[in-house]
Amino acid sequence: MRGNRIDRISPEPIPTERSGNMVVVDGGGRTLMPGLIDAHWHALLVRPSTALLLQAEVGYLNLLAGAEAQATLLRGFTTVRDLGGPVFALKQAIDEGTVAGPRIYPSGAMITITSGHGDFRSSFEVPRVVGSPQSRGEKVGAAMIADSPDEVRVRVREQLLQGASQIKLTAGGGVASPHSPLDASTFTESELRAAVEAAENWGTYVTVHAYTSASIRRAISAGVKCVEHGHLMDESTAQLIATKGIWLSTQPFPDEMADAFPKGSVEHTKALQVFAGTDKTYALAKKHKVKLAFGTDILFSSALARRQGELLASLLRWFKPAEVLAMATSTNAELMALSGPRNPYPGKLGVVEEGALADLLLVDGDPLADIKLLTNPEKNLLVIMKDGKIYKNSLR
């Protein structure tokens, strides 16, 4: 390594002049691989409950997120694409070295409509009057409500002003939001186009939360470059995604993830309905050779976050180990690069090659032969490096 880059790779010993700043790690025949990338993460929404999110001081939420950021990095995830939440301060603290954590590609607040996924207001908080105080979710920067093309442009530009690398809109109903049925298509095409235009003017792209074929097709018509989830889409929509070269960032949701919500609640029921579509979604993506990204979308559960590597390994149900590892490294890195000039970390991620950013893991074993090694990072990830800095070294 030299600085934060991989300087040289060789099958032969590389001569070194040991100095006070040099660290030599003997891998001892173990496996060196790129740091993992989670393409759908919510750094500030992992540890708090929904109630805490809507009540706690933002400072406390950031302290929770800082602790979770370090835990995320020590699970081997050196990069995350954050798709909704006030993460700009956390990202700054990580980049400055104040807090240990992964690289963050921030979206800022996810943009929604009145009654859409991300609108957590109660019925007594409507009607909304122009110029009235923002809702709690808007004040903390978790979500912003926009109900016209002009409002969408403003909200998109606000996120770009704060440093968003890509923009996230909720184009259809969601699980966690109490007022947004799964079958609902939310933004109009003109509203989605306004977001796409504003993002493209800044050299970046829009991704949308969307489960159903109707919401996905409308978003594609508006020029969206990436779809999150897609668990309720039909085959013709999967074929359209492939034909148009759209990214599908989807997740292998386990059924127990629904337990983040009270059993019998609307949210719990919706979660199980979405999760039932997981197998079909991956099958369609494989059949039509969709550009597929891996993410977890873990919300409101530090216990589930600890299983981040386990969720990655669960992709063995549909893919070979080499395909899984490529998806969570080099393929996800291609999606990160879609931010173009808004990419906060210029350089090559997700590969072990000369000149690439030095995000590396030393695995005690061969994950190509046993990918489940990544489900126990505390034991099996002996060295974790991000940006050329070692955050864990069990071989000292």
Describe the model.
- This protein is an alpha/beta fold.
- It has a single domain (36-356), classed as Metal-dependent hydrolases (TIM Barrel).
- The chain has 14 helices and 14 strands.
- A 5-stranded parallel sheet has the order 7-8-9-10-11. A 4-stranded antiparallel sheet has the order 1-12-13-14.
- Helix 5 runs parallel beside helix 6 (189-201) and helix 7 (213-221) runs parallel beside helix 8.
- The chain is globular and about 70 Å long.
Q: What is the fold's blueprint, element by element?
A:
Blueprint: E1 31-34, E2 36-41, H1 50-53, H2 58-74, E3 77-82, H3 88-96, E4 103-106, E5 110-112, H4 136-140, E6 143-145, H5 149-162, E7 167-170, H6 189-201, E8 206-212, H7 213-221, E9 226-232, H8 235-244, E10 247-250, H9 266-275, H10 278-287, E11 291-294, H11 302-305, H12 308-313, H13 321-336, E12 360-363, H14 377-380, E13 381-386, E14 389-393
Parallel strand pairs: 2-3, 3-4, 5-6, 7-8, 8-9, 9-10, 10-11
Antiparallel strand pairs: 1-12, 12-13, 13-14
Strand content: 15-25%
Which stretches are low in confidence, meaning pLDDT under 50 for 5 or more residues running?
Answer: none
What's the name of the CATH homologous superfamily? Metal-dependent hydrolases
Shape: globular
CATH class: Alpha Beta
Largest sheet: 5 strands, parallel
Order of helices and strands: EEHHEHEEHEHEHEHEHEHHEHHHEHEE
Mean pLDDT: 92
Helix and strand composition category: alpha/beta
What is the name of the CATH topology?
A: TIM Barrel
| Strand adjacency order, main sheet | 7-8-9-10-11
Q: How many strand units?
A: 14
Domains (count):
1
Taking the alpha carbons of the first and last residues, their distance comes to 18 Å
Question: Roughly how many Å is the radius of gyration?
Answer: 21 Å
